[in-house]
Amino acid sequence: MKEDLEEQIEKLKQLLLDKSELLDQSQKEVQLFKEQVIKNEKLASLGMLSAGIAHEIKNPLNFINNFSELSIEFLQEIEDILKGLEKTEAIEDIEAILNDLKYNLDKIQQNGQRVNRIVTSMLLQSRGNNGVFEPTDINQLIKEYVNLAFHGMRASKSPINVKIEFDLSEDIGLIPLKQEDFSRVILNLCNNAFDAMRENNNISQGGNREPVLKISTRKKDNIVIIAVEDNGQGISEDIKDKILQPFFTTKKGTQGTGLGLSISSDIVSAHQGTINIESKEGFFTKFIIKIPVS
Amino acid sequence: MKILIVDDEKDVEMLFRQKFRKELRNNEIQLDFAFSGEEALEVLGSENPPSVVYVFSDINMPGMTGLELLEKIKSKYPNILVSMISAYGDSDNYNKAINSGAKGFFTKPIDFENLKTEISQLIKQKEG
Ligand SMILES: [Mg+2]
């Protein structure tokens, strides 16, 4: 009888222990969830704040760009007037100074335009959410935008020869995509690949490795997998996890805004998907996008 | 042809006067400036009928916004053309402006080539 009771107490104890563990567990989950909510809230207000700031930057930028453009025009007029005068040493001195001034104003203007590009992509990023999910032939979209990226690159200041290899699975069918957004992901990844392969060409001149861009699609267990692989310079281990962060860029000088991959990552997230990076420095980079479809 | 520029930032006056110096010198256009929506309505109300034929207005201003000004002008002086010039070129502002009767929508930083095309087209219409 006593043993029976003890056994029952033991059972109840165990039950209580189990329950409190469960409670602990769910409390932890609630805490995590709370933190996530706060983080999202912060991100959302940061997004709104930065959109507001981005807009306001355009007002001073208007003056910077347009006044410098005007000043360049005025300098041109002064130079024209000086041309009509008899050349003296003083006039030659003035002309030399005017040349420097013009150079400086050009720099102000170029950088003003650069700020404008950065701000514009920030605004594009913060806008989000406007697109609609539409049933999309992902292979078709990929072909179209890889081509577009390729021709854009060929028409740019520093074109390279690239072999493009498609390996697109026929059994994916239509998947829901925000087409406008998703096409930007494809463009961004291709442009990064072209840059990486151009860099590698520069590094290993005479290294005779033909730039190849491989794009593949697969469907496995209700997940669509899109891979974009280049045989460019690769990404070193220490920056691999920074590369999706906003404003992180390895591109030299004025070329990159550091927003391309972060925008792409946001867009893929909006599709409940993930981006993974596989890379070996000096050999290849492979971006793998996984998107769940029901 | 008289054009009224409305913006809360005073620097726009020198910017427009310099950008349009040839047109001003040749007397193709006259420029007037107002630094708030309220001031713009005063300028228009000071003559009967107003000699201004085209208003370019900023949207984001303290006091009356450019969109409010647009509605007021359109109801009081339906013949005066109004276009917006704004740093906020999103579709929301754009649609509101166009639906309220704005002729055009220009974004900042202003592309003066576009603006000059718009104005010279109007000059041609006036002459033709
Ligand atoms: Mg303003």
Describe the protein.
The complex is a heterodimer of chains A (294) and B (128). Chain A has 294 residues and is α+β, with helices and mostly antiparallel strands. Chain A folds into 2 domains: 1-129; 134-294, Heat Shock Protein 90 (2-Layer Sandwich). Helix content of chain A is 59%, strand content 17%. Chain A is built from 5 helices and 7 strands; from the N terminus they run H-H-E-H-E-E-H-E-E-H-E-E. Chain A has a 5-stranded mixed β-sheet with strand order 2-4-5-7-6, covered by helices on one side. Chain A has a two-stranded antiparallel ribbon with strand order 1-3. In chain A, a hairpin with a 2-residue loop joins strand 4 (212-220) and strand 5. The longest helix of chain A is centred in the N-terminal third of the chain and has 82 residues, at 2-83. The mean pLDDT of chain A is 84. Chain B is α/β, with parallel strands linked by helices and 128 residues long. In chain B, strand 4 (81-86), helix 5 and strand 5 form a beta-alpha-beta unit. Chain B has a single domain, classed as Response regulator (Rossmann fold). Chain B contains 6 helices and 5 strands, in the order βααβαβαβαβα. Chain B has helices at residues 11-19, 21-25, 37-45, 66-76, 91-99, 112-127, and strands at residues 2-6, 30-34, 52-57, 81-86, 105-107. The model of chain B has no long low-confidence stretch (mean pLDDT 94). The A-B interface holds A 55-56, 58-59, 61-67, 69-70, 112, 116, 123, 127, 130 and B 9, 11, 15, 18-19, 60, 87-88, 90-91, 107-110, 112. Magnesium ion is lined by residues 7-9, 58, 60-61 of chain B.
